Amino acid sequence: MCGIFGYIGDKDAEKVITEGLKRLEYRGYDSWGIAVKKDDKIHIHKKIGEIGDVEEIKQLPGAFVGIGHTRWATHGGVTKNNAHPHFSTDMSFVVAQNGIVENFQELKSMLEEKGFKFETQTDTEVIVRLIELKLRDIKELREAARLAFLDLKGRNTIIILEQNTDHIIAIRNGSPLVAGISADRKEYFLASDILSFAHHTDQVVFMNDYQMVEIKDRKLSLFEVENGNEIEYKIQKVEPGEVNIDKEGHEHFMIKEIIEQQYTIKEATNYTKDELAELVEALKSAKNVYTVGAGTAGYAAGQIAYYLRKIAKLNAVELKSYEMESYKDLIGEGDIMIAISQSGETADTIEALEFTKKNGAKIASIVNMMGSTTTRMSDYKFYSRSGPEICVASTKAFTAQVSWGYLLANAVVDKFEEAKANIAKVSESLQNYFTEELFEQIKSLVDRIKDQEHFFVLGRGMNYYVSLEGALKVKEITYKHFEGFAAGELKHGVIALVDKGTPVFCIVSDDEVKNDMVSAAAEVNARGAFTVGIGDNPKQAFFEDFIEAPQAGDLSPITNVIPFQLISYFLGVVLGNNIDKPRNLAKSVTVK
Ligand code: F6R
């Protein structure tokens, strides 16, 4: 959600920034803009819609300093005028922002009273005018920006380009910001993630909230926003596997990431017993164990809590990071919160962790993106090591999280080695799973259902979360109404929706609830539903189609979600949708 990029170096700034913004595209955006400094003037180029071919964008060549921004509209419609960066009144600096200024109305009224004029509907312009106000008393831009930032409420990260010198300032709170420095110290990058500049350098400086970075005179300096004091920083090296962005011959990132799951479920559990031991002990002695996440990560949190209850016999409770209100006074010392997140930057989840920490509970996390806020807030940190997930709809991150949760739950009851062997077995079965034959079966099913608008998915026991996640996946890419339910809900109301020809997907594993699941499938079938089975349990006669998933025992949620990911992909392709960047969605939801 919104991306920020800044560059100072010896290359064409417009090109470097445009490339950087393209690598941030996956976060979701509806308009974009670039500002570069050339001939002691700032030049801005803004556009609505997609960035297009980097080679064709030659609006502002010959500049070596600049900033760029991809905007996901919050305040003010999707217009060129509202796109960032935004000029100061005297055109001496520009600002781009990622976040929401929560006290924007209040600040705007105050600034209007002081005579400031506004030309956009954005909250970003409030930041610009606020800096201008501070500059009436303080002549230094860095100090004025720092003081203005202290007046902002909400999670905001801003980047500022100044006209007079080769000077970029950025301040972080909530939304991510990371700096990159080339090995020869000639190039500096500031961005919302390391992926966007990883093809230039592997040396990075991770920043914390309320830190301000300044690049001036080819030098990077870090300051505390609170008092303006300069602080020391560490340059870290990132591994190439953590930043490789390539479709590797596939038409879309989504299908590449789906297929990668055969390996990523193993990578996510590439931990030794000793590496898990501290968390395992903490879980055993915890007063309460919670798991938390949002969206797909929320479903993974549900699945992990299920494993902790079923396998580890811990009374784990799954929470939605955006529905924590009633738990605020209940979570405290002696409790453990396990956070699940691909990006590690989800605002809802971070907010949940903030009060978890404040209340004295411990935080564990499983995150995919290196150096994220969630990881840095955690007492027990784990990476799902799935490599960059570029498609907005999460696939390999989900199964990696579930795989890790399964290993963790087994480690609590001393079944670490057994769990590892089971994960390896499932990984092996998946290596033979993605065949042309399977793809053809799914394409032909897609062809039969593509004109329907309403679909239902039923799951039970360990497949309950798969029904929710499977349905979410198809919704995101196809824009069709897919709804996941616990099969047990059917008779309590949901069956009223089932009519002749209604497509109902039933997830059937060879487990202790299979008879109940088959009965539910039979009931919808008896009412004329177009019933499709998914799972490792042999086809029932009444299924119109059955998509078989590998035998996986307790790991079936991993293998059973994959057919839904494939249905989502092939149906999205048939419908001509934007697979990797579905409408309205952002990869990293950094605002509430
Ligand atoms: C759906 C999806 C989202 C994310 C959610 C949390 O495919 O990707 O529902 O799971 O926005 O994001 P992370 O995992 O980055 O915390």
Q: Which strands sit side by side, in order, in the main sheet?
A: 3-2-4-1-10-9-11-15
In CATH's first tier, which class of the largest domain applies?
Alpha Beta
What is the name of the CATH topology of the largest domain?
Glutamine Phosphoribosylpyrophosphate, subunit 1, domain 1
CATH superfamily of the largest domain: Aminohydrolase, N-terminal nucleophile (Ntn) domain
Overall geometry:
globular
Strand content: 15-25%
> What small ligands are held by the chains?
fructose -6-phosphate
Task: Work out the count of structural domains.
Answer: 3
Largest sheet: 8 strands, antiparallel
**SS content category:** alpha/beta
- Cα Rg: 25 Å
Secondary structure layout:
Layout: E1 3-8, H1 13-24, E2 31-38, E3 41-48, E4 65-71, E5 86-87, E6 93-99, H2 104-113, H3 124-135, H4 141-150, E7 156-162, E8 167-173, E9 178-181, E10 188-191, E11 203-206, E12 211-216, E13 219-224, E14 230-231, E15 236-237, H5 253-259, H6 261-267, H7 273-285, E16 289-293, H8 295-310, E17 316-320, E18 336-341, H9 347-358, E19 362-367, H10 373-377, E20 380-383, H11 396-412, H12 416-430, H13 436-449, E21 454-459, H14 464-478, E22 481-486, E23 503-507, H15 514-526, E24 530-535, E25 545-548, H16 556-574
Parallel strand pairs: 16-17, 16-18, 18-19, 19-20, 21-22, 21-23, 23-24, 24-25
Antiparallel strand pairs: 1-4, 1-10, 2-3, 2-4, 5-6, 6-7, 7-8, 8-12, 9-10, 9-11, 11-15, 12-13, 13-14
Helix pairs in contact: 2-3, 3-4, 6-11, 6-12, 7-11, 8-11, 8-14, 11-12, 13-16, 14-16
Bound molecules: fructose -6-phosphate (F6R).
Residues 294-297, 341-343, 346, 349, 393-394, 476, 588-589 line the site of fructose -6-phosphate.
